[in-house]
Amino acid sequence: MTALSSENCSSQYQLHPINQLLDGNSLLVLIILGKILLNILTLGMRRKNTYQNFMEYFCISLAFIDLLLLVNISIIFYFRDFVLLGIRFTKYHICLFTQIISFTYGFLHYPVFLIACIDYYLNFSKTNLPFKCQKLFYFFTVVLIWISAFAYVLGDPAIYQNLKAQSAHSYHCPFYISIQGYWLSFSMVMILLIAFITSWSEVIILIQAIRITSYMNETVLYFPFSSQSSYTVTSKKTLLPKFIVCFLGTWLPFVLLQIIILLFKVEIPAYIEMNIPWLYFVNSFLIATVCWFNCHKLNLRDIALPVDPFVNWKCCFIPLAIHNLEQIEKPISIIIC
Hints:
Layout: E1 13-16, H1 25-45, H2 54-79, E2 82-84, E3 87-89, H3 92-107, H4 109-124, H5 131-155, H6 157-168, E4 175-178, H7 179-198, H8 200-209, E5 211-215, E6 218-224, H9 236-263, H10 270-273, H11 276-293, E7 319-320, E8 332-335
Antiparallel strand pairs: 1-4, 2-3, 5-6, 6-8, 7-8
């Protein structure tokens, strides 16, 4: 089976055939199992007191789809060849289901990014729905996204012809690379690089001033805070280095991994690339971006600030006078990453 040209397939995907026998399906099952374990670990590590948002609902739905895929391909892998509801399932369907999931995941990067961005923008604009209505809205939005994505994948003529051709050469199982995922990762890394270069001197000063202590049974980082500053942030230039320190304090290993992937053009199958750690990374990036663009609306005493499952953005700014640290420095600003 040869790779389809860009004219014969959707421009959002790249097809890369792997010359492997379907006996390698055992490796595929292990890969999906490893991804599910990573999803569970990430969901278990996240902060529990986060409020409901679109990205949280989508991450849970992604974990469910991954689990559903694992169950289906595991059953087929175990029974090898069986008939269910008049449909014969063979080892070929393991590859087929994974291909469909890969195409679907590869199509979702831009829509999920855009909807999450709109969600946080509306949160800043104080146009939220009532809590119960908001939960239902997120639920039905996620369901609609998945239905639309699967409908697009199964209804696209180029993808259908590719899946049909693969059935005629069942000893090959291609995997798919999402162009959306590549460009989204490239854009975020470039924005982070530009932001760091723009304020690198302030970032270095903040890093040099940081000290580590314990506060309320949590390890915190703190650095000097100007007593003339107010609770309302008005300067984007002042806010940017704090955001960079807070973001990279949590996601630096992931950022370095993205840079390595981009530099060496590592080809990651779409069913692996779309995962919960990646989505939480995008989520943190979106929160920082929306907060920075709306810094004139930020009131640091307002408890309605976006809550990140991994980065405590609000604590980056709150000036506190902790009595047992008075002999070191006061007032101080607390940052928890």
